[in-house]
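Order emerges. One example.
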Amino acid sequence: MSGPASGNRFKAITILQEQFKQVGVRVTIDALDPAVLMSNSDAGRFDVSVLGFSGDPNPGALRQTWKSEQRKQGSNYGSYSNPSFDATVDSAVAEFDPKKSRDLFSRAGEILAEDAPAIWLYELRTVSGIHKRFRRARMPLHAWWAHLDQWSVDPAQMKDRDRIGPGAAKQ
């Protein structure tokens, strides 16, 4: 079992190692440098790899991680390949009707679940905080930064650094 030795991943790997031991499977942990890990991944030289992954929330980003042609150039580290999945995702991305597109993406997700090319062990929760002096615009879940140009600071709560505007450094 290999993977970079981040705190959470190492804890997960050692828990898995103990669970495998209970059913008679010996697991050796190799904490590899990321470059070596990717090289081994590209060559298929691993039995199990525990990786961290943070994907683009756009459903079309599935292509980068799971499509067959991404085995050597994208993030398809396990070399997953399924022509039915590929065609379904391509159709979903090309579909203009939102409901049809959603249905196709759901079907692509079902194909992934049936094939089980990976096992997701856990997901970290992202927590963000914004000081109450900020007036923020609507924040879409998939793109919190989408309307940053509409944010402002309540004038009554401004700090000196908030008063610096465009061109202030030229004075």
Observations:
- Residues 65 and 76 are 5 Å apart (CA to CA).
- The chain has five helices and four strands.
